[in-house]
Specification:
This protein starts with a strand and ends with a strand. 43% of the residues lie in helices and 22% in strands. By secondary structure, it is of the alpha/beta class. It is elongated and about 65 Å long. The longest helix has 17 residues. A 5-stranded parallel sheet has the order 2-1-3-4-5, sandwiched between helices. It has a 4-stranded antiparallel sheet with strand order 6-7-8-9, with helices on one face. The protein binds calcium ion (CA). The site of calcium ion has 5 residues, from loops.
């Protein structure tokens, strides 16, 4: 795995480079925004760690340029504590995670690993049932390529039904899986969610895929 570290403070840059190398990563280190932009364009980077306050080009400008060029490797930003607006700007520019300075290197390494795992799983994150397709990582749903806009609950219902396609799923199963532990659960509401979900899918001719089985629950079947 190849990691790009962008940090203008030379002591920290060197410290991070050595530590990531010791972890077995291939490390490129850039000291300013222009260098960072160049490395991200020319090298097959798997992940970038970008300090936002940089000479020449800011971290935000660098990330924005990469994303505009469809460079999709995960980016973790480093920000100064007092400047919370930077976090928001960084995430909006396309960063995936952030860490506030000062931080523990252990934490940075743990976050890096998590981001790389997530990025690696991205290609396997789709569930396909006939023309119905759901992407777990981006939470996007399409029917024959047409995007379907779902609320968070509708999405969770569909995800669960698709993960159990062909099986009978009871209302209580669904209730357990779509609510977090601490939420007020109501199995009567499931009927409402399923009804709305079916209606939205029906706009693309896919509502019939969800069958209601009297007193038993639901089953997603795709011919
Ligand atoms: Ca800096």
């Amino acid at each position: 795995m190849r990691v790009l570290i962008v940090e203008d403070e030379s002591t920290l840059r060197l410290q991070l480079k050595e530590r990531f190398e010791a972890e077995g990563y291939v490390v490129d280190a850039a000291a300013d925004g222009e260098e960072a932009l160049y490395f991200g364009r020319e090298y097959p980077i798997d992940l970038a760690i970008v300090d936002l306050g940089l000479p020449k080009l800011s971290g935000i400008e660098v990330i924005t340029a990469w994303r505009k060029e469809q460079r999709s490797f995960p980016v973790l930003i480093l920000t100064a504590k007092a400047r919370w607006q930077e976090k928001v700007e960084g995430l909006e520019a396309g960063a995936d995670d952030y860490l506030v300075k000062p931080f523990h290197i252990e934490e940075l390494i743990a976050r890096t690993k998590a981001l790389l795992r997530r990025a690696a799983g991205r290609s396997d994150s789709r569930i396909i049932c006939g023309e119905l397709q759901l992407d777990i990582s981006s939470q996007r749903v399409t029917v024959a390529g047409n995007p379907v806009e779902l609320t968070a609950y509708e999405y969770r219902v569909l995800e669960y039904l698709m993960l159990h396609a062909g099986e009978v799923v009871s209302k209580s199963d669904l209730t357990e899986h779509i609510y977090a532990e601490d939420q007020d659960r109501d199995s009567n509401v499931i009927e409402v969610f399923v009804g709305r979900l079916r209606k939205k899918l029906d706009a693309f001719g896919a509502g019939r895929f969800i069958a209601t089985l009297r007193n038993r629950g639901y089953r997603l079947t795709v011919e």
